[in-house]
Amino acid sequence: MKMIGFIAILLIVFLVSISMGAVEINPFNMTDLEQSIMLRVRLPRVLMAGLIGAALALSGVLFQYVMKNPLADSFTTGVSASSAVGAVVAILLGISELIPLFALLGGIGGLYLVYNIASYKEYTQPITMLLAGIVLSTFATSLISLMKYFSSDGVSSIIFWLMGGFQGAAPLKVLSLFIALILSFLIVRRDYLKLDIICFDDATACGAGIDVNKMRKKLFFIAALLTAFSVGYAGIIGFVGLIIPHLIRLSGLVKASVLLPSSLLIGASFMMAADLIARIILRNGQELPVGIITSTVGGIFFMYLLMKRKKELYYFS
Length: 317
Prior knowledge:
- Helices cover 74% and strands 1% of the residues.
- It has 14 helices and two strands.
- The protein starts with a helix and ends with a helix.
């Protein structure tokens, strides 16, 4: 029943998002101009927001399974920051059309570095991986600051892009992200039972016939890929991969078979709602970077959880 409710929420948020903005549109009765705005601007942007929200939520869940830590997400694993380094390099080189490619390369580079630091004799230690990710994230952030310092001409573009947004939404980007998201979900959905088992200690998982190291490597790569796509297309958007899985777990859905699809639906709904707020909160057609909205809402919500629901937050499943 909860899944039906999540789908209903997604549909409602989608309809409201495509209807409201600088120009209010009735999707069931549009003029030629409104139809052009809908198909060329509004619909690609709303779809992009939903897909990136779903991708970040799914990557957050996967990172938490890999690390066996509910505080793991694309930031604490260093993937977001390393992807951002690649994107900033593309901006400074004046090849903005290649930002997604450079972000993907940066994310894969960060993934490779973190995984190798945390690996010893083909085994990985989740806590070491988490620490390596935090160190990489700090280093990457410093590197971005250094590039901004030595590039006064492009600093405004870098800052605006880093705050996150969907102004560059386009049908081709929507299609590529949709394919990446669907393929990733189809791959991990076959491992629902394994995901639940690896929440226990490695000995229990190995006793159940699971190759824990291989499983972590696959999940880490998929999560990093989704994060790199998201950063490349929309900049750094925080807290989605951290907050959404917590919200789902606190609603009582802790098994992977419902946690993953629920995170996709709620992540998409949350991001579309955040983008809608960013588009309508200011007057005269101005808009806030969506990263500001997600960080504000996510920060307040997470602080509330820390203060009011301490006991639940210490249980991974």
